[in-house]
Amino acid sequence: MSTQDTLLSVTELQVDYQVGASTVRAVDRATFDVPRGAIVGLVGESGCGKTTMASAITRIISDNATISGGQMVFDGTDLVSLSERQMNRLRWRDIAFIPQSAMNSLDPVYTVEYQLNEVLRGRGGLSRRAAQVRSEELFEMVGIEPGRLKDFPHQFSGGMRQRVAIALALALDPKLIIADEPVTALDVIVQRQILDQLRSLQQMLGISVVMVTHDISVVAYTCDHTVVMYAGKVVESGRTAELLRTPVHPYTMGLKNAFPDLKGAEQGLLTPIEGAPPSLMNPPDGCRFASRCPFALEMCRSVDPALMAGQDGHAVACHRAAEAPALRAEAVKYETWQEDA
Asked: How would DSSP label each residue in 182-213?
């Protein structure tokens, strides 16, 4: 992908947490691109590093966390090298954030109008009148009656609060939105409404979105590109349709198995990936998925596979990538993933 087509390029990024006397590397040499005007999904199990990755992009990380290596080049500027003051100029204006729970971004003691004004006037420099007009415009964009601007957050349903959070993120016309599990707390009907709304706005405004999720169905429904993370590492990335149709990494194959297939509904069961991810306090040598992988070889347990990109931009970190067609044929079988098989 050319630099001109890329809004954000993450290269060899490392994020460490200091836990007592130990250092835990939650993101380990992660590399991926976010094209302009596209939605990129970050998917993986809980604890894989995807939320830490999202926080690192905004440079809003916990006090015991450090970006210890790598680059994040956003629109030509390396975010890692910026001072806090310089980074603060980009937040909301160029890079905005939608949290998992809207109540994490909405103050219950102020009206939503007041909170929008804080962003529009305090960060955007708009006049009182211009902020009012923009607030009404934003509410109409996310499908909320502008008359509800004077309501408090508790007067909105969960889905409506999430729409308010989207309006806040869009307030200053950012180039990139980081959405951290934006529909997890909602029921499936409202989930689809919010995802449709977000996709429609993304296409209308031409913005880029990084969608953090553990739900492969959200990725399949919403994302143009997908980045699969496991135990702090990017193990596969590429165009979503291709990645889900012909996954190359066994972990991606396992994730796909756990996604209900309407054509195979008569089977009546899904195929789980047995076991659990390794502790990042003391990660194993070699491929971190090896202990759960039914296709692991001896070298997989000792040699860490590099993330290799093909000509089509599809990247994978697996010693057996060349055997992917044969592995996919075995991966669809339930017994392949059973430890006692």
From this structure: TTTTS-HHHHHHHHHHHHHHHHHHT-EEEEEE
Report d(CA 34, CA 8) in Å as an integer: 5
| Confidence (pTM) | 0.92
Q: Where are the beta strands (DSSP E) in the chain?
A: 6-19, 22-35, 39-43, 65-74, 77-78, 95-98, 176-180, 208-213, 225-230, 233-239, 308-309, 315-316
Torsion sign, CA atoms 273, 277, 278, 284: positive
What's the mean pLDDT when you consider all of the chain? 91
The CATH architecture to which 3-94+174-337 belongs is: 3-Layer(aba) Sandwich (3.40)
Strand 39-43 versus strand 22-35 pairing type: unpaired
More confident residue, 183 or 246: 246
Place of tokens 């210890």: 68
* Other CB atoms within 10 A of residue 296 CB: 17
- pLDDT-derived band of residue 4, with 50, 70 and 90 as boundaries? low
pLDDT tens across 17-70, in order?
Answer: 999 889 999 999 999 999 999 999 999 998 899 999 999 999 999 999 999 999
